[in-house]
Every structure is written in structure tokens, then in C-alpha cells.
From TrEMBL:
<keyword id="KW-0614">Plasmid</keyword>
<keyword id="KW-0285">Flavoprotein</keyword>
<feature type="domain" description="Glucose-methanol-choline oxidoreductase N-terminal">
    <location>
        <begin position="252"/>
        <end position="266"/>
    </location>
</feature>
<dbReference type="InterPro" id="IPR000172">
    <property type="entry name" value="GMC_OxRdtase_N"/>
</dbReference>
<keyword id="KW-0274">FAD</keyword>
<protein>
    <submittedName>
        <fullName>Alcohol dehydrogenase</fullName>
        <ecNumber>1.1.99.-</ecNumber>
    </submittedName>
</protein>
<dbReference type="InterPro" id="IPR036188">
    <property type="entry name" value="FAD/NAD-bd_sf"/>
</dbReference>
<dbReference type="GO" id="GO:0016614">
    <property type="term" value="F:oxidoreductase activity, acting on CH-OH group of donors"/>
</dbReference>
<dbReference type="InterPro" id="IPR007867">
    <property type="entry name" value="GMC_OxRtase_C"/>
</dbReference>
<dbReference type="Pfam" id="PF05199">
    <property type="entry name" value="GMC_oxred_C"/>
</dbReference>
<dbReference type="Pfam" id="PF00732">
    <property type="entry name" value="GMC_oxred_N"/>
</dbReference>
<keyword id="KW-0560">Oxidoreductase</keyword>
<feature type="binding site">
    <location>
        <position position="85"/>
    </location>
    <ligand>
        <name>FAD</name>
    </ligand>
</feature>
<dbReference type="InterPro" id="IPR012132">
    <property type="entry name" value="GMC_OxRdtase"/>
</dbReference>
<feature type="binding site">
    <location>
        <position position="217"/>
    </location>
    <ligand>
        <name>FAD</name>
    </ligand>
</feature>
<dbReference type="GO" id="GO:0050660">
    <property type="term" value="F:flavin adenine dinucleotide binding"/>
</dbReference>
<comment type="similarity">
    <text>Belongs to the GMC oxidoreductase family.</text>
</comment>
Length: 533
């Protein structure tokens, strides 16, 4: 067993871990180690934007979790992909760049995360981003406007949105977030621009930053009440590292609470039931899980969509050639092309549903493989922005290789069930616009046309799926009874330990979670460096 010393040891080279690795190693006198359970992200289908569908279920890049079956989803268990690769989920995600809405962060602050209100986080976003069409911006996260390459069918969706009374926007990430437009994406020169590309790779040139791949952290080590380091396995060997200043968990919303629980920090009853010595009773570790559920309906189109190209071998070959020669075209653009935030009813105080229109229809094989239809089609999708149900992540055994129990507790509240119906009604209204009707050959089953509200809810229970945004399982707040970490992301009652990743959100944000996670890590690094003096 070898043992080494670092100032900061970061667990996980995902969206948050990459940001921390970069910012903390800017000071050459600090020695920083990043431990990542996965391997290299230098793979063709990680870099090609459309490769999202290929990576979706690839066990070489993916923890491939499953939730417990849920009665509220008519007995279904859900597949929850999570990146196990350099870049974490930012290397396998759909690349949509969405900051979230102002009130999401004001609600963080109200929940006890003082200093995380919109005014504060907006400045961090601005510092982090370079907008491809606003060259005066200057951060490492490349946010590409790909509207010139989006499938032309998306324009029908935007016209239908206007017909239905929704505003269309040039950029849903600016001051005005209510409305629909082309999504911006983390794509640069036709390739995925992950957190590893933006933050980790440039920092690895520094002598004081070390990255260990295929290094699976087993548990944290303690010196009294202080986290002093950790133990990890790599290539069949066990190693220990000492963290002179801090251990920082950035293992994501499933694995960060799992590691805390395995290390004796969590709900005392749960730990005892798994034979784990209770180091600190922290009842909220793994609790408070929030995620977005989306329901999709597919349609056959009377106009060409992506199916005409990628649904056919000749089209795929032509698109592949174009991509190799120009880094442009259908392979260079993520599948989530157009959408945004809308209000589902007149009394909604804020936009409460996120919409997507993807210019493709598909079937999923029994093995979980996505196969595009040969004939043109498109998909409309809606997800309630701010679910109120909260679930949990709890270890099932004391062994680090055993997946924890994931119980999303979907649709547990009346508010969430109502939101599911309202989201479905928006899709029906859009499908009835004369614009979409004029380019639609018919609905693929199931069709909204014949559904009343009860049927819409039942269909949501039958088919709504995660959009892969688990958050809040080590959330920020004021004390151990309502949270796991404080507003400086320090674990309550434990010295030398922070959690910095999507698990730290007090509440889920309205939209996709990658941008808020990177923003959170950028601000966390400021706090860590301030505390280091
Ligand atoms: C299929 C998919 C599509 C998505 N699409 C979008 C999208 O289009 N836009 C968007 O904004 N968001 C999207 N998301 C969500 C977004 O990518 C995540 O919310 C975000 O990346 C989470 O970042 P994180 O740092 O919390 O965790 P992660 O990025 O998951 O990083 C955690 C890292 O820790 C490592 N790790 C875990 N346990 C250990 C251990 N014991 N030892 C060592 N290392 C460990 C993991 O391997 C991983 O690399 C998507 C996610 C998925 C899975």
C-alpha cells in the first residue's frame, strides 16, 4: 500500500471535479490530486456530438444505475446512466447548456444557502462562459450557437410555439428565460466540449496537479473528527492518500452520498443496519433526491427530419463524410435542438415547464438501443421544472462496489401530479396548432388526441423518463437536521470535508443541471481558496 500527501484530494473528475482541479491548482504551491473511477474520454463517440446515443448505455463509460421500481410510475424501474469516465456526465450528456431561472437560485438562498442567490451566481456564469456569438465573453466553457446547423424542421416548432402564444427567444440563458428558441450547446469545432476539455485538460500541464484514472475511492479516512484522506483501489491494489487541507467529494449525486454513508457519515439507523460504525449521525445524507421527469410524444412528419438522414445507411454515410471533412452537419449537432421554458397556466408565477422538440422519431429495442425510424418523424417532450417530490439514495450493503438503492419517489405530491398533466396538455396544444398539423402525417402511438386528464397522468406514469438530473442528495442548508453541508459546502460537524457537485443543490434548478453544477464548483473553489487563507 503506498501513501502520499496532497493539499486537496478531489474525488471524481466529473463536471464539478474538473472545475475544482483547475481552480485549486492555479496556485503552484498547492498540491492537488484528482481520483477518477473511470478512464480516458479520448474516444470517437464521446467527442462526436451525436454519439450521445451510442454512449447512453455503454458500460465502459457508465455506472449504469437502476432505480427501484416505483408504484407511482406503474411499477417501473428506471435506467439512470451516470458518466464513469474523465469528464463524468459532461462526457456522456446531451450538451444542452441551460443556466436555470433566477428564482431557482433565490430559492437556494432561501433554503439556507446564503450567498447563492441569482445576483451572485449570475456573475459566476458570466465569468465561466464564452458565448460563440459574443466574443467579448471569455471563460473556459464554450457555449455554441448551433442554430445555423439545426434541422430545418425545428423552425416549424418555433412557428407553432408562436401560434400557441409563446414568445420565441434568441437565447434562453439571458435575462429573459421565458420563451422558446434553439438550445445552446457545449460543442466546439463540431466536438463535445466537456468539463474535462474546458477545465481539466489545460490544468494537467501543471506540475502540482495529479490525475489518477481507474481509481475507485472506497472510503474516507479520519483523524479524530477530521477527514484526513482516503482509501482507493486501482488495478487491484489498495492505496491511501493524505489530504493536508481537505477532501472534496465531487462524485456526483449518487456516489457522493454513497461514499459518505460507507465512511460512517449518514443516517445512524441506515449505517447500523449495514454494519457500519456511525462516525457522525447526519440524517440528511442521501435524502432529498430530486430529478426531472419528462414525457415525450412522437409524430410522423410529412416533411423531412433527421430520420431522412440518420435513419438510413446512405444518409449516415453522407453525414459521416461531411463531418469528417467539415466538422459540421447532423453529426456535429446534439439531438436536443429547440425548446425552452413556458408557463403551463395563467396563474403560474414563473415558467414551470421545460419543452423540447427533437427533429427525429425512434424506437427503443428491448436491449435499450435507440433505433431511428426510417421515415420522417419528430418528438415533443415536456418536463415540469421544479418537482416537489423528494426521494433518497441509500446504501444497500457496506461494500463500495454494490450500487445503492435509488428511490426517486416520483409523483409523490399532488402538485407534481398536476404538473404532469399540465405539461402533457401543453404538448397536446402544440400538436393541435395549424403549423404542426400542416407538417404532421399522424401521431405515433400513444396519441394525445383521445386522452382526458386521467389518461394523460396514467400515460405519464407509464412512460415518463428521467432526463438524468439527480440532485440534492447532500444539499446545502443551515444545520444537520435539514441538510448535509453548509453554504460553504462543508459537511456539518466534520472538519476538512466538503461536497461539491450536483448533490449540493438545495433544490433542483428549472432546467438541465450541467451548467449549474459547473457554476457551483467555480464558486466553491473561490470559497475553498478564501478559507485556505
Ligand atoms: C445521459 C445524460 C444526459 C444529460 N444531458 C444533459 C444536458 O444536455 N445538459 C445538462 O445541462 N445536463 C445534462 N445531464 C446532467 C449533467 O451532465 C449532470 O447533472 C452533471 O454532469 C453532474 O455533474 P457532477 O459533477 O455532479 O457529477 P458527474 O459529472 O457525474 O461526476 C462524478 C464523477 O465522479 C466519479 N466517481 C464517482 N464515484 C467515484 C468513486 N467512488 N471513486 C472515484 N471516482 C468516482 C464518476 O465516475 C464521475 O466521473 C445529463 C446527464 C446524463 C447522464
Amino acid at each position: 500500500m503506498k501513501s502520499k500527501d496532497y493539499d486537496y484530494v478531489i474525488v471524481g473528475a466529473g463536471s464539478a471535479g474538473c472545475v475544482l482541479a483547475n481552480r485549486l491548482s492555479e496556485n503552484p504551491s498547492l498540491r492537488v490530486l484528482v481520483l477518477e473511477a473511470g478512464g480516458s474520454d479520448r474516444r470517437f463517440w464521446v467527442k462526436v456530438p451525436v454519439g450521445y446515443a451510442v454512449n447512453y448505455a455503454n458500460p465502459a463509460l457508465n455506472w449504469g444505475y437502476h432505480t427501484d421500481a416505483e408504484d407511482t410510475l406503474n411499477g417501473r424501474a428506471s435506467y439512470w446512466p451516470r458518466g464513469r469516465v474523465i469528464g463524468g456526465c459532461s462526457s456522456i450528456n446531451a450538451m444542452a447548456y441551460v443556466r436555470g431561472q433566477a428564482h431557482d437560485f433565490d430559492d437556494w438562498s432561501a433554503a439556507g444557502a446564503a450567498g447563492w442567490d441569482w445576483a451572485a451566481v449570475r456573475a459566476a456564469y458570466a465569468r465561466m462562459e464564452t458565448q460563440s456569438d459574443r466574443p467579448q465573453s471569455g471563460g473556459p466553457v464554450w457555449v455554441q450557437n448551433l442554430s445555423d446547423q439545426m434541422n430545418p424542421f425545428s423552425h416549424h416548432f418555433l412557428a407553432a410555439a408562436r401560434e400557441a402564444g409563446y414568445r420565441t427567444l434568441d437565447d434562453i440563458n439571458q435575462e429573459q428565460t421565458e420563451g422558446l428558441g434553439f438550445y445552446r450547446s457545449n460543442v466546439r469545432n463540431g466536438m463535445r466540449w466537456s468539463a474535462a476539455d474546458a477545465f481539466l485538460r489545460p490544468a494537467l500541464k501543471r506540475q502540482n496537479l495529479t490525475l489518477e484514472e481507474h481509481a475507485h475511492v472506497v472510503r474516507l479516512d479520519f483523524d479524530g473528527a477530521r477527514a484526513s484522506g482516503l482509501t482507493y483501489e486501482q488495478g487491484g491494489q489498495t492505496h491511501r492518500v493524505v489530504a493536508r487541507k481537505e477532501v472534496i467529494l465531487s462524485a456526483g449525486a449518487i456516489n457522493s452520498p454513497q461514499l459518505l454513508q460507507l465512511s460512517g457519515l449518514g443516517p445512524a439507523d441506515l449505517l447500523k443496519s449495514q454494519g457500519i460504525e456511525v462516525r457522525q449521525d447526519l440524517p440528511q445524507v442521501g435524502e432529498g433526491l430530486q430529478d426531472h421527469l419528462a414525457v415525450s410524444y412522437q409524430f410522423r412528419a410529412s416533411q423531412k427530419t433527421l430520420n431522412a438522414i440518420l435513419g438510413r445507411r446512405t444518409g449516415r454515410l453522407a453525414a459521416g463524410l461531411r463531418y469528417i471533412l467539415t466538422r459540421r452537419g447532423p453529426l456535429a449537432v446534439p439531438v436536443n435542438q429547440v425548446g425552452g421554458f413556458v408557463r403551463s397556466h395563467a396563474a403560474a408565477a414563473v415558467p414551470d415547464v421545460q419543452l423540447f422538440c427533437n427533429p427525429a422519431s425512434y424506437e427503443v429495442t428491448p436491449e435499450g438501443k435507440i433505433e431511428l425510424d426510417r421515415d420522417p418523424g419528430y418528438l415533443l417532450s415536456a418536463q415540469p421544472c421544479r418537482p416537489t417530490s423528494r426521494g433518497s439514495v441509500r446504501i444497500r450493503t457496506g461494500h463500495h462496489m454494490d450500487a445503492p438503492a435509488i428511490r426517486p419517489n416520483s409523483l409523490a405530491t399532488e402538485a407534481d401530479r398536476t404538473a404532469a398533466i399540465r405539461a402533457s396538455r401543453i404538448l397536446f396544444a402544440l400538436s393541435q396548432t395549424s403549423t404542426l398539423r400542416s407538417v404532421t402525417a399522424g401521431a405515433k402511438l400513444p396519441s394525445l388526441d383521445t386522452m382526458d386528464e386521467a389518461a394523460m397522468l396514467d400515460e405519464f406514469r407509464n412512460r415518463a423518463s428521467t432526463v438524468y438530473h439527480p440532485t440534492c442528495t447532500c444539499r446545502m442548508g443551515q444545520g444537520a437536521q435539514d441538510s448535509v453541508i453548509d453554504a460553504r459546502l462543508k459537511v456539518h460537524g466534520v472538519a476538512g470535508l466538503r461536497v461539491v457537485d450536483a448533490s449540493a443543490f438545495p433544490n433542483i434548478t428549472s432546467g438541465n443541471t450541467n451548467a449549474p453544477t459547473m457554476m457551483l464548483a467555480l464558486r466553491a473553489a473561490d470559497l475553498i481558496l478564501q478559507d485556505a487563507g
